[in-house]
Amino acid sequence: MRTLIFTVLFALPAAAFAAGPSTALGTGAAPAPTFSKDVAPIFNKSCVECHRPTMFAPMSLTTFDAARPWAKSIKQRVVSGVMPPWGADTPHGMFKNDPRLTPAEIDTIARWVDAGAPKGDDKDLPAAPTFADGWSIGTPDAIFTMDEEFTIPADGTIPYKYFRAPTGLTEDKWIQAIEIHPSARAQVHHVLAFTQPAGSVPKPGGELGPDNIGGVTPNKPGLVFEPGVARLLKGNSDIVMQIHYTANGTEGKDRTTVGVIYAKQPPTKIAAGGMAINPRFVIKAGDGNSEVRATTPLNRDTLITAFTPHMHVRGKDMTYIAHYADGTDETLLAVPRYDFNWQITYELAKPKLLPKGTRLEVIAHFDNSTANRFNPDPSKDVRWGDQTWEEMMIGFFSTVQPPPVVSTTPQP
Prior knowledge:
Radius of gyration: 23 Å
Largest sheet: 9 strands, mixed
Distance between the termini: 60 Å
Helix content: 10-25%
CATH class of the largest domain: Mainly Beta
Oligomer: single chain
Number of domains: 3
Number of strands: 19
Mean pLDDT: 87
Number of helices: 5
């Protein structure tokens, strides 16, 4: 599937452009945008976090020479709304990580390409954003590596694998940021990381419980918590990684690493989460709009910070609805354009408090018809399963909660 991402995102590089005018498109027309003055600031703001060397996007947009061969495809993708990736149908400002370009920014890029993609004057270039090489969270305080390299077969079904990454920590640490790096990105479907006692045999468990420390799909950068929010990394524990590999026709080698930045002081809130899940469904062969629902009751006041819809390649859309105890309903998130290749976490600009007694319902639709070009086999019914050609229906949500109260009363 990772290869699919690269080929679908952008067409082949554009042929060399004829030298286009860089000052005017015609008599009385406004000067044509240039890369240095007009386009680079847009790329720096909305694109280069992913489109830069050492990251997972298929080309770099950090310089004119790197971006120009892709100019026609860039225009096509931004005008169509495919790039930057965003599936939610929400107004700007509702989610803090909304990367969508404004109409003026889209127009600037389109006019730049139509004018021949001129470079402009180097003195107009904005200062380039700074990144830690290969990391979106910044330079990690510590990097932990799984203790054995795994050879990924070229073909066949690969069950979930569990690997240990020793930390050597003897005391608890609070994590302010975490990023997980598979070395074989093209063959890693996902990684979930949790902790278990040091030296124990890696085994399933902890992925969704209090020992969870993070997770990743290949297109996701790292996770940075808000100031005062952190997640616990237990001392005398190893990090255990559940890794789902997908064979893609080429044998690969993987040795996944986990980078963390520690909080400078104990947090005032702990990062946590939950989910609405339905593993008991059947999506009939040929059904282009199969509906699956899941509901989870909230047994205490819950402060939600983000939503992460999860389905596989037949997923079409997902909606989160809060059913309040007073009988009213509220749509919290609608994602009408779910894309398995871009499994986005939608981070609320302002956390949403759902009072105790709320029922959180998630409604998803799946396309198991021939109209879905990513459908592995529209002639078969589909059920829950780990593999990409099977399906899942999970509405993850992230929360913050107060840290546990530690008693200081002496024990008798």
